[in-house]
Amino acid sequence: MPAEVDVIIIGAGVVGLAIAAEVSQTNKNVFVFEKNRTFGLETSSHNSEVIHAGMYYPENSFKAKFCVDGNTLLYDICRKFNIGYKKLGKLIVAADDVESKEVERLYHRGLKNGVGGLQILAHDDIKKLEPNVNAVAALLSPSTGVIDSYNLLRCFYGRAKENGAEFVFNTEVIGIERKMAPIRLTSGMMKEFRRLPRES
């Protein structure tokens, strides 16, 4: 007999955990399936831990919007839940006039994407910030930073667990079928789970 749940989330990386922490506040039967032995063992813990500002993505793209909005939200989450971070800022440097044009292009793209605080710096201003950097120009991105990614993951996981979300580790989703509501999901445990249809 298949188990019936309200919400099924596939993957316990940072996105899956963040969704679980949020939706479990208002949904009682939330299940998170993860093929690994615990949460955050793939991309979410194997990265540079940079909080990006959003100047690299094309204007009006979802990536640009979500990156700019997420930048602010991540710092808010870090402060609220005492997650380690440093808002260090970043210099994107140009070694010659050709690279200076690319710096200017990133600057204008960043402005269009809504990235705050961007500045183009000349050689002397760069030296004041970073004496060991020799560049003809640079783009300063003050909202770029770094984050303790493990504690971010652990925070989302803990919040979801406190709200009653269930985590099913060592279990890979191998099939999803939707001919009509409800959705039928088959896991590597060979047990079927069905998502209950929403009340209208």
Q: Write down how many β-strands occur, each being a DSSP E stretch of 2 or more residues.
A: 13
Secondary-structure element sequence?
EEHEEHEEHEHEEHEEEE
| Average residue pLDDT | 91
Tell me the strand percentage band.
15-25%
Amino-to-carboxy terminus distance: 26 Å
Strand order of the largest sheet: 1-13-12-11
Q: Class by helix and strand content? A: alpha/beta
Could you list the spans in which at least 5 consecutive residues all have pLDDT below 50?
none
Gyration radius from CA atoms, angstroms: 22 Å
Number of helices: 5
Largest sheet: 4 strands, mixed
Net shape: elongated
Helix residue percentage: 25-40%
What's the layout of helices and strands?
Layout: E1 3-5, E2 7-10, H1 14-23, E3 30-33, E4 50-51, H2 62-81, E5 85-86, E6 90-94, H3 97-113, E7 119-122, H4 123-129, E8 137-141, E9 145-147, H5 149-162, E10 166-168, E11 173-177, E12 183-187, E13 192-195
Parallel strand pairs: 1-13, 2-3, 3-10
Antiparallel strand pairs: 4-9, 5-9, 6-8, 7-8, 11-12, 12-13
Description:
This protein is of the alpha/beta class and 200 residues long. 34% of the residues lie in helices and 24% in strands. It is built from five helices and 13 strands. A four-stranded mixed beta sheet has the order 1-13-12-11, with no helix packed on it. Strands 2-3-10 form a three-stranded parallel beta sheet, with helices on one face. The chain has a three-stranded antiparallel beta sheet with strand order 4-9-5. Helix 1 packs parallel to helix 5. It starts with a strand and ends in a 5-residue tail after the last strand. The mean pLDDT is 91.
